[in-house]
Amino acid sequence: MPAPATVPSTADRPRAGDDAAARCERLLALAAVASRLGALPMLVVAVALAPAARLAPLLGLAVVATAQTLAYAVAGGRRGVITARWAVLDTATTAVVVWAGEWLANEGGAVERSHAYNYATISAMAVGLARWPAWSALLAGGCLATATVVNSLTGHLSANWNALPDAITPVGVVTVAAVVAGLLRRAARKLDEYRGQAVRSAAALAAERERVRQADQLNGPLLSTLDELVARDAVAQPAMAGQLRSELAWLRDVVASGLVTAPTQLDAGLRQVVAAKSAAGMALRLELPQSGPTLDPTRVEALVEATREALTNVVKHAGTMAATVTVSRTGGGVLVEVTDAGRGYDPATVAPGVGLGSSIQRRVAETGGHVEVTSAPGQGTRVRLWTPLW
Fold first, then answer.
1. Which residues contact 170 (CB under 8 A, 6 or more apart)?
2. Residue 148 CB contacts under 8 Å (≥ 6 apart), including other chains
3. Which of 25, 119, 146, 369 fits 387 for a cystine, CB–CB 3.0-4.6 Å?
């Protein structure tokens, strides 16, 4: 016997939080954190070079900036992403530190620049790497630029000529970082798409190989035996003979093209079943509510296939080709009833699995539902298939 085809294991598939997009976001968050931590030495230099009169307020400012940076680093490291909320808070804090640092470090209108400007330039990279729209990043870069030039325009004796370069630098850094981050995120999303397509293609190929393997086995003794039974009219009962021909045709379709995709709507699935059974000679009536119940695909498939088997049992055991399929809502779930007026039987005298296929009970039980059978000799049979809505 050929070995069963293998399908891609869950280990080969992208896991939540482990796809390329998530890894890219973690990398960008680490780069942003590194940028913020790398800017702190500029404040240390500013404190070390500050006039004695400004030492205490500058030291306090440096402590605030350090605390905010460490909180930023912890949040980014734990979440694996710099969110817009943290980016806004970080930008506002950085702008205040830059403006106050510029003002405090230049006592008496000194023309020498403060190291808070360098702090802003290095910190600007984190602004561009955060996960927020590009226009937000540029707006934040503008806030940093404004903070760096305010003192140049309002107090420094010979720094006015430097206002424009001071404004351009943070905005330029933010722009470059945002463009690079955007390209990386786009590439990561594409990689995830291609990986998902590859996984789906591998799964489809594995399923096709498995179908071919099963077809090779079914084309052997099983289909040959069924073909011979049909050809020789070995089944005398007309109803059973018709059912055998119908099931043989269905089996050949499965061998040739695989199982039909399971229906996602109960009404549509039951109509397909009733149409197929009617084509095989059954006289069926389908009664549906005006608004069909909404079920998840698993429950829909279970009810549809259980109904199909219940109708097959009508042909096999009830001695009739007529039945009614009724759908209703009851008890917080959906009820499908298959009723016939055939010969009936005493359920107490029938061994388990006879008269009611065990697969019917298994299918419905797996959805959290149950199956009930009401029958008596000469009074027909009613099969009730119930599954919860949720």
1. 120, 121, 124, 141, 144, 145, 148
2. 98, 102, 116, 117, 120, 166, 167, 169, 170
3. 369
* Model pTM score: 0.53
The CA–CA distances, whole Å, from 282 to 67, 100, 115, 285, 385 equal 79, 88, 90, 10, 20
Q: What is the pLDDT of residues 140-158, one digit of tens each?
A: 988 888 887 775 565 543 4
State how far the Cα of 76 lies from the Cα of 28, in Å rounded to an integer. 10
- Interstrand relation of 322-330 and 283-287 (parallel, antiparallel or unpaired): parallel
- In angstroms, the CA 40 to CA 21 distance is 29
pLDDT in tens, 342-383: 888 887 776 555 545 677 888 898 889 999 999 888 889 999
Neighbours of 186 (CB within 10 A): 12
- Cα-only R_g, the chain: 37
Closest by CA position to 32, among listed 66, 61, 75, 67: 75
Could you please report the per-residue DSSP string of 116-159? HHHHHHHHHHHHHHSSS-HHHHHHHHHHHHHHHHHHHHHT-SS-
Could you give the CA distance from residue 184 to residue 331 in angstroms, rounded to a whole number?
Answer: 53
Give kind and range of the element (H or E) at residue 284.
strand 283-287
Using DSSP, state whether 261 is helix, strand or coil.
coil
Question: What separation, in Å, do the N-terminal and C-terminal C-alpha atoms of the chain show?
Answer: 41
What does the DSSP assignment read for 148-185? HHHHHHHT-SS-GGGHHHHHHHHHHHHHHHHHHHHHHH
Q: What residues pair up with 330 in beta bridges, in sequence order?
A: 333
Cβ proximity of 23 and 99 under 8 Å: no
**Count of residues making up the chain:** 390
What lies within 8 Å, CB to CB, of 157 at 6+ separation is 109, 111
Environment class of 383 (CB within 10 Å of its CB; exposed 0-12, middle 13-18, buried 19+): buried
Q: Which two tokens stand for residue 218?
A: 């079914």
